[in-house]
Amino acid sequence: MLRSLSLLAALLATGTGTSFAQVSITGSVQDPSGAAVANAEVVLKAGAAVQPRAARTDYLGAFRFDGLGPGNYDLAVAREGFKIFTTRLKVGNRPPDPLRIKLSLADLRQEITVDNRATQVNADTTENLDIVKLERRALDDLPVFDQDYVGAVSRFLDSGSIGTGGVTLVVDGMETSERGVSASAILEVKINQNPYSAEYSRPGRGRIEIITKPGTSEYHGAFNFLFRDHHLNARDPFALTRPPEQRRIFEGNLSGPVGSGQRSSFLISVNREEEDLESILYALGPLGRIQGNVPNPRRLTFISARLNRQFGQNHTVSWRYEFTDESTKNQGVGGFNLAEVGATASNREHHIYYNHRAVITPKLVNEFYLRSGTHYTPTASLNPGQKMVVLDAFTAGGAQADRLSTENHAQFNEILSWSHGKHFIKIGMNAPDISRRGSNDRTNLAGTFYFSSLADYKAGRPFSFIQQRGEGHLAFVEQVMGWFVQDDFRVRPNLSLAFGLRYDYQNYFPDHNNFSPRASFAFAPGRSRKTVLRGGAGLFYDRTGSGPIADLLRLDGRHLQRIVLSNPGYPAPIPPGNSISAEPSSMARLAPRVRTPYTAQFSFGVERQLQKSTTVTVGYIGTRLISAFRSRDANAPLPPLYTGRPDFSIGVLRQIESSGRLQGDSLEAALRGNITRFFNGMVQYTLGRAYNNTSGINSFPANSWDLTGEWARADFDEQHRLNLLGTLRPGKLFNLGIGLSVNSGRPYSITTGRDDNRDGLANDRPSGMPRNSRQGPGYAALDLRWSRDFFLAPSKKDKGPTATVAMDAFNVLNRVNYAGFVGNLSSPFFGQAVSARPARRLQLSLRLRF
Fold first, then answer.
1. pLDDT of residue 106
2. Which of 543, 466, 612, 493 is nearest to 162 (CA)?
3. Is the peptide bond before 571 cis (omega within 30 degrees of 0)?
4. Angstrom distance (rounded) from CA 399 to CA 411
5. What is each CA distance from 764 to 294, 451, 652, 751, in whole angstroms?
6. Confidence tier at 122 by pLDDT (50, 70, 90)
7. Which of 259, 602, 797, 844 has its CA 20 to 30 A from that of 328?
8. CB 129 within 8 A of CB 119
9. Does the structure show a pLDDT above 80 at 732?
10. CA–CA separation, 499 vs 504, rounded Å?
11. Which pLDDT tens digit goes with each residue over 407-428?
12. Each residue of 147-159: pLDDT tens digit?
């Protein structure tokens, strides 16, 4: 009886009376590999006079304590085979975010303010603070256009760290091309976590990692409705009238137990997008200016279903199925492209996932991921006629885009994690792509005429005619695999080292010596450990993607013919009585000494804990891309007269080379956490520069025999970048999410618009003019989100159903951010912008969750 009265008095003292709201502490417990730790004992203690409360994690590693008041708490987690984890929690009046506790090798004790969940400095190589991390609460409170969380964090990526195939997307530990769940089922999105890990093929600044919600032992769900309408938007500066657009998104997820819920759970997510958007025409034709709006409707349906099942205490299995159906009309229309060059495209995908986590011993964990799927993607032109391209003026005729692409692929990860003393070792193999890709290429069968200017078009003087003929069917198998070993070594509590070695393989390329060593360190000098010195270096090999491989196989001189004629006749490209099939065909091949490009990246930084919930980071990042991909016409007409090709039996001989390079250097500073009393978020500023001599594997130099003018600013180079994301809570009535991006302008090139060297491309530059010599305009946009929660069951507060109404305003100041500056001297738009980034747009949303 006395103990009960003491407990009641302590609970009242900590705020469980009518003066304070009761809150809950929830969380999950993981082993060092990230696998759920079931049956762990979690003890919560509020003081010496209060009886401790205990709970055990379920098979998903989850735990929960309800009915808590504001105050300080001690939390301890214990499980046989792991070291005890202890932490101090400071709980306020607001419902805290779920804790995620990772049982690490060393004893940990740190101060955490649950109200803000700001990351603390940590002398662990995997816990770097120069990271962009958006957890579920931030995803809900920040202004995110169309719930595109991947796009929202992409502004923080480093373009120099992105490979030829684009941004690397990692979902629940597996590299993939789709996020795999609807937006509300995403738990966390992050960039640059553990940047030098050998587990991944690309640096941390070139990949986006997504963690999805697990199944739950209780029923939980969310439903989102997003609405945009042209009446709420500002007019585009290049549109005569405001396009009558509307967009509707219906999205949600439901999770809960299967049966008793002791060992099984499910998660279902659905997303339906209905876009009635319009493309803006801004061109100049023979009869004058062409401006207008063309409907560009799009429909998307996505369904995902996942089942989790625990077998015994040490085995957890997950199955997931995904279905995607997407269609778009008038694809490719807008800007210079008139409505007649549109196409209809659709895409249907099926995917199946399998995941097995096995705790072999408390120190040995095995994880296996398998994903397989099919893609079916047809594209059909609206108009079958010849295509007419007047450079940087207008494009008319047919789209010439007919194609059918299919894909059957499999991906898998096999990772073994072992804890031994001060070492945490991972050994694994991942295969991001083992696929059979098919293509029925019927593009450009009618041919395309290219004109340098409107005057040449009126006079009937094209500089080039390109047409494809022959066998467009292709099927090939692509294999991309990697093996790695990683050792995270806690030398002392304030010093950690990490060493890794990775090997990457891609078929069709003769270079197989692709070993990439990586290393990093974290050191916290002094007794307070409020400052961490952190650095690392590593090599990262590139991949080509499937497109260049397909070009090499079909443009081999035997299958698909690609005819390129310089200064052809018009409207007949060759003299009457001749056959275009007799003209020499173009080919694609690898350079004799081609090798796989690799990026050498290195960095050093300082992290400092300013307050319990505020940190600052300053760091230098160096990037060197060696043997970068680019294309060159190895059969281009010889200077100085450019009268004919060296080999008259071949047209363009596209040679894929690895002779390019890139050099990038940047200084980055960021402030994170509770920056002021009311503002919680992050501010990041980057000062950098990037130079290279190639725009990518598909780019050609202005002159294939003279590359001296190619070394210049990279296409993506922005000297200054400022990004801010955070929430402002001035009171209880609403939350205000803020997103701010301010960037310097990117460069662009000056070209003549003519084909003086007769290689079929009009990318010639004036004599002595280097690539990317002109500066484009800067960019600035302020986004805001106002939201208000309504508790539908006030007595339950955060545990009950909640409705949230919100309004997002993107580019709220309606700043005109010009884009698409024309550097073509032959264009009537030379020196002018022909497009702009979106004007102010408003987005209304309603969320129901329980």
1. 33
2. 543
3. yes
4. 34
5. 33, 14, 16, 6
6. confident
7. 844
8. yes
9. no
10. 17
11. 999 999 999 999 888 899 999 9
12. 999 888 899 999 9
Q: Which residues pair with 99 in a beta bridge?
A: 27
Contact assessment for residue 283 and residue 189, using Cβ atoms and an 8 Å cutoff: no
Quick check: is 200 in a domain?
no
- Report the alpha-carbon distance of residue 49 to residue 69 in Å, rounded: 15
Distance CA 384, CA 380 (A): 9
The amino acid present at 773, given as its one-letter code, is S
Question: Over the chain, what is the mean pLDDT?
Answer: 88
Q: What is the CATH number of the domain that holds 580?
A: 2.40.170.20
Give the CA diameter of the chain: 110
Compute CA distances 758 → 341, 344, 435, 650, 827, whole Å: 26, 34, 39, 14, 19
Residues for the chain: how many in total?
A: 850
Return the structure tokens found at 220: 């939980």
Tell me, what's the pLDDT at 12?
32
- Which residues on neighbouring strands pair with residue 381, listed in sequence order? 343
Average pLDDT, stretch 373-396? 96
Contacts of 699 (CB under 8 A, 6+ apart): 630, 631
C-alpha 497/C-alpha 520 separation (Å) is 6
Share of the chain above pLDDT 90, in %: 66
**Token pair of 50 as six digits:** 């209060």
Closest residue by Cα to residue 117 from 186, 67, 188, 63: 188
Instruction: Find the mean pLDDT for residues 158-170.
Output: 91
Is-contact 722 738, C-beta < 8 A?
no
Q: What is the mean predicted confidence (pLDDT) over 197-208?
A: 94
Q: What is the C-alpha separation between 43 and 80, in angstroms, rounded?
A: 15
- Phi, psi dihedral angles at 71 (to 5 degrees): 155, -175
Report which of 236, 247, 119, 234 is spatially closest to residue 188, judged by C-alpha positions.
119
- Do residues 451 and 754 lie in contact, with contact meaning Cβ atoms separated by under 8 Å? no
Asked if residue 35 lies in contact with residue 357, where contact means CB atoms within 8 angstroms, the answer is yes
Amino acid 94: pLDDT: 66
| 490 bridge partner residues | 496
The structural domain count of the chain equals: 1
Residues 6+ apart with CB under 8 A from 634: 653, 654, 655, 704
**Whether residue 584 has a cis bond before it, omega within 30° of 0:** no
Q: How far is CA 725 from the centre of its chain?
A: 17
Instruction: Kindly state the helix (H) or strand (E) to which residue 547 belongs, with its residue range.
Output: helix 546-554
Q: Does some domain include residue 74? A: no
- Separation of alpha carbons 505 and 482, rounded Å: 6
Mean pLDDT of 582-602: 94
**Segment of 79-88, 194-203, 208-217 carrying the highest mean pLDDT:** 194-203
DSSP code for 796 = T
> Which structural domain, as residue segments, surrounds residue 350?
212-587+594-849
Q: Is the dihedral of CA 576, 582, 584, 586 positive or negative?
A: positive
Say how far apart CA 185 and CA 231 lie, in whole Å.
Answer: 31
Q: What average pLDDT does range 769-793 have in this prediction? A: 93
With a cut of 50, say whether residue 1 has pLDDT above it: no
- Quickly count: other Cβ atoms within 10 Å of residue 513's Cβ: 7
Contact 455, 73 (CB under 8 A): no
Q: What is the DSSP string of 118-170?
A: PPPP-S-TT--SS-EEEEHHHHHHS--GGG-HHHHHHTTS-GGG-BTTB-EEE
Residue 8 lies in a domain: no
Residue 734 scores a pLDDT above 80: no
Q: Give the β-pairing of 111-113 and 85-91.
A: parallel
**Opening angle at CA 610, ends 609 and 613, nearest 5:** 80
Of residues 158, 170, 161, 167, the one with CA closest to residue 200: 170
The encoded tokens of residue 645 equal: 């090709």
pLDDT at 740: 96
Residue 153 lies in a domain: no
Q: For strands 720-728 and 712-713, give the pairing.
A: unpaired
For residue 94, report the phi and psi dihedrals to the nearest 5 degrees: -85, 145
